[in-house]
Amino acid sequence: LDPQLWHACAGGMAQIPPINSKVYYFPQGHSEHANKAVDFHEFPRISPLIPCRVSSISYLADSETDEVYAKMRLVPLGRNECDVDDEGGLMGFSKNEEKEKPNSFAKTLTQSDANNGGGFSVPRYCAETIFPRHIYRGTPRRHLLTTGWSNFVNQKKLVAGDSIVFLRTENGDLCVGIQRAKTGISGGPEVVSGWSTGAAN
Amino acid sequence: LDPQLWHACAGGMAQIPPINSKVYYFPQGHSEHANKAVDFHEFPRISPLIPCRVSSISYLADSETDEVYAKMRLVPLGRNECDVDDEGGLMGFSKNEEKEKPNSFAKTLTQSDANNGGGFSVPRYCAETIFPRHIYRGTPRRHLLTTGWSNFVNQKKLVAGDSIVFLRTENGDLCVGIQRAKTGISGGPEVVSGWSTGAAN
DNA sequence: TTGTCGGCCGATCGCCGACAA
DNA sequence: TTGTCGGCGATCGGCCGACAA
């Protein structure tokens, strides 16, 4: 997924550490978000927090619900790599994503937007900056998406309260993302981490 | 699932051994029907056929596709229980299901039946013996299901060539089953057998 | 500027008898 | 007896401007 679109859908609350940054991994916190929490009293030798390096990040979206989630690979650090003062230190998130103001716009769908018998009322700013073509009608005039919008709403099963994100990328492509009001809780489809294989490395 | 309805949907080709009967279990054949075939050359000590007793049978249908499948629990027999002549012997299927002629009827859907703009033409025998109420019209007169039929076709995603089964149980209930033309191959949704846990018992 | 409403027109759904196999 | 067809009326989807917040 395009990282810009991903961040636009995830919202500002979702901060992702840059690649190669150092972070703490909390096994118990991870386990509590997984399907089955692990009782760590059985594993007293596992440290509650493990310094790691972020070796890779995948920006993904659920193929069914289109909800965005991220997959990060963490490599535990050796004892001599754990220097906190090292290049910004642990836990430091770079905020360079916010510097570049992307050409994106989000709107929460109104009742009229989500009605199956209507179009999508496009806010003026979005219409002027993001949209290539749309209907401009009514008295007073307003910007509207009509043909095709209903199909999109039905296919994605959108309801009033859900949000839609429009993003114009640097090379001119128009991307669309959605953000549902009823979040499915838990981060992603299933939390499929490698408890059984690589976690002990 | 009602065993009668299950058998009506599965068809005469699907024969299920009665509970407590003795059967041979073929690990390799089972494995070949599973998602991943197991290379049994790695396990030379596993017998190619294992005498078992059928300890339980569940008649089930896939919650999504409504395709019927059965789940059987097999208990391996001890050496002294393996007498072939014992109560009918191994591999003997009781055919008592066919004795009782159930009040059921199956029909393969025609193009007209599956069209979204129409009803279901009910064969005369089915109309007279199974159905409680239906439309009787046209010149010449014929038996038809109209209102509600389209919804059923759409919900179950039925197409021409699929079959529908009507069954009147002994206590008067009317059951409906379907049988798709495009079989999803493999028996059931996913072959979830206990390769990892109980297979060695 | 934009959310909601009622009107209206066309497309589709779904019930019908006619006909023929 | 029953599969297919064309027709038709009712319903629904979807685009419209009016109006008000």
TrEMBL record, chains A, B:
It is found in: Nucleus. Transmembrane segments: none annotated. Coiled coil: none annotated. Residues 142-182 form the TF-B3 domain. Belongs to the ARF family. Auxin response factors (ARFs) are transcriptional factors that bind specifically to the DNA sequence 5'-TGTCTC-3' found in the auxin-responsive promoter elements (AuxREs). This is Auxin response factor. It comes from Sesamum angolense. The lineage of its organism: Eukaryota, Viridiplantae, Streptophyta, Embryophyta, Tracheophyta. The chain holds residues 19 to 219 of 657 of the full protein.
